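Predicting structure from sequence has reshaped protein science. With that in mind, we have picked out one protein's residues alongside their backbone shape tokens:
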Amino acid sequence: MSTVRKFRVKTRLANMIREPGGIHVSEALKRGEAMIAAQTEVCLDQIDVCLENIQALFADPSHDPEQMYRLSTDIINLCAVLTYPALAEVARSLCELIDQAGEGARPKRQAVQVHIASMKLLHRTGLDEAASQEILDSLNKMVAKLDR
């Protein structure tokens, strides 16, 4: 019968934790929150730009749906920093709508228009969670109705 030998690998992180001169977790969290707060307005401005570009694409009948998809994913990424789950959900839903239309095809104009309107309602309006959920529910009902 063979014997089992256990090895403990010492990682760089484990070694760094043991070294003196670090900061406490609470201080690291405070610094992280401060950095995010400092970037909030920049992220909100970027979402403004994305929404303006999505609207411009929507107005152009010959637009490339992939551009709208990319802008929607940018909104999703920015919402992760800001913790705006409702806006991120609408942007994700728009991506899904574009995916369902197929490559080179355009999603239904009414559905895209409802998504744009929903994103505008959720962005910079200060809605509470219940109101945001109501918008999401209405969007889902409208998309389901348009899919019939």
Summary: The mean pLDDT is 87. Residues 42-147 form one domain. The chain has one domain: 42-147.
